[in-house]
Structures are given as C-alpha cells and as structure tokens.
Write a structure and sequence with these properties.
Layout: E1 17-22, H1 26-36, E2 42-48, H2 51-61, E3 65-68, H3 70-73
Parallel strand pairs: 1-2, 1-3
C-alpha cells in the first residue's frame, strides 16, 4: 500500500479527506473501509446504501470524495 501514501502525492501530503461510499452491498463498504480507512490521509470513510441515504450523509458530513456505484447513480432520486 505504499503507493497510497500522501508522500506519493506532494500536493496532498498534509491533506486529509472524507470519503462517502455509496453502494447497496455492505461488503463493498467493508472493503473500502479496510483498504482506505486506515490510511493517514483518510479523515472519515462513511457508507450509504441508496441515493436518499447518500444525500443525507453528504449534507451532514460533507465528504471530499464520493464513490457511487452505477446502480445507485441511476436510481430515482439520485440526480
């Protein structure tokens, strides 16, 4: 995982990011939390299961990055 360290990207060396993972499958959220949650540059990694949940979390936590599964992005209310 050395290539995921902020030192690999000098502009982000002191930055920390909030992530929102939007996927209806819990295993996906678990995977992202395991992969990214322990990184020093990840401030918060939260999960939403549908579009309305994602919008609520986005308003509340204001993540810097949202990883949205295609089936969620195409669901009613996602626009």
């Amino acid at each position: 995982m050395d290539d995921l360290q902020p030192s690999s990207f000098p502009a982000f060396s002191r930055a920390s990011f909030g992530l929102l993972v939007v996927d209806r499958h819990e295993i996906v959220a678990i995977g992202f939390r395991l992969l990214l949650g322990g990184q020093s540059w990840v401030k918060r990694c939260i999960h939403a299961t549908d579009a309305s949940d994602a919008l609520e979390h986005a308003r509340r936590y204001q993540p810097h990055v949202a990883l949205v599964a295609a089936e969620v992005a195409e669901s009613p209310g996602a626009e």
